[in-house]
Amino acid sequence: MKASIQQLPTEVIINIFDQINDAKQLIQCKLVSKSWTSLAEKSMYKTIHMYLWDDSRLERLNHHLKQKPEFCQLIQNILISQQYFYTFSKRLFQEFLSLAMTPSIRTLDGIWKQEYLTMLLDYVESSSLKFKKLKQLPYSVRHDSVYMQLMSHFKESLQTASCSITEKTTLIHQKIIRDSIKEYKYLTTLSIQDYRGFKSVQEIDTFLQKCDRIKNLEFIINQSTTYTYMDEDQLSQWLASGSVQQVDSVNYLKISYMKGPDHMERCSFGPDWINYLAYKYPNVERLSIENITLRYSHMAIPVFGNVKAFSLDDWRFHCTQDLQHFVDRVKSESNSVRYYKCIAVQGSEICSLRATKDRNNSLTKFEIVVGQEKLSNMDIVQSCFKNVNHTSNI
Length: 394
What we know:
It is a single chain. By secondary structure, the chain is of the alpha/beta class. It has a domain at 312-393. Helices cover 35% and strands 21% of the residues. It has 14 helices and 13 strands. It has helices spanning 2-6, 10-18, 23-30, 34-46, 55-67, 90-100, 114-126, 145-153, 171-181, 201-208, 232-240, 272-280, 320-330, 375-384, and strands spanning 47-51, 77-81, 107-110, 160-166, 189-195, 216-222, 252-257, 286-290, 309-317, 334-342, 351-357, 363-371, 390-393. The strands form two sheets. A ten-stranded mixed β-sheet has the order 4-5-6-7-8-9-11-12-10-13, with helices on one face. A three-stranded parallel β-sheet has the order 1-2-3. Helix 3 (23-30) packs antiparallel against helix 4 (34-46), helix 5 packs parallel to helix 6 and helix 7 (114-126) runs parallel beside helix 8. The longest helix has 13 residues, at 34-46. The chain is globular and about 65 Å long.
């Protein structure tokens, strides 16, 4: 058996190693045979994930890279996550960038602190190296001059980018951002972070006018409390007027809600912008919606008309009619339903729900969480599936 495994083509072994996310397991793979050592190392150093790291861990990595500089060329992806509670020293992070930022780098991911982005900009502007393979920049809470300069520096290679619109972002600054997006000729994926920035659906449409080559579009939304919404008749008239230019290129749309503001502040939230997106991008085939706003889950249903695959996470229902309507719209020929009990479900909720369907698949998977103390809610949920062909697991 050992001999047969070692006889696998190199490409197959590398692909297997790339699926292993645990560095300790990859170290074990190195010990199997000498021929596997370099292959496992390529996978180990392909992605550097800084998750809750402190200075001591970064210092050890820097030391290791200095001892074996050939490993620096293996690094393709750098991911920083959950690092807002841990701050690297400026000296160590600058040293890390000088080691890890080689022409092999492809993606910079995660939400980077402003000081990290500033150090990154300083490094790439002073470096003689060219980073022609870099496709993605990290997220930034602030879309300021530093981030704009970073995007401009890599405009010849960027395929994925993000921008932040906050309550302090003026309309003039919005124009500067959207005009800059047009410069990136290879940009296909754009994440727009709305931190209470957009005040109306017309403002959203104005911003999106320059994004006519995007294929994958993500909205991360913290709805402004001063957002002025259109009612259904106003929206229909506006769309019928020809003022909104439809874009055929977008085939993947993701909408993520951040927590807050509280539900009382959102009482005037309207369905205009999500119905607007359904009209704006008629060719969306894959849809992902996370953490839909409480009490408004049913408003996203019209978007489902043209999609072939979807992922709907953390949807919460307070009304049996809305839940039944939802189930009827997303069910397939075959369905699987898995129930979970949890104390985290709020008292006014019937349940929270996740539904997924893959492309060219006739199966919809439902994962439903109900409160442990609300057995009657379980009966309500099950009644919504009584006429649905499904298998269930409680």
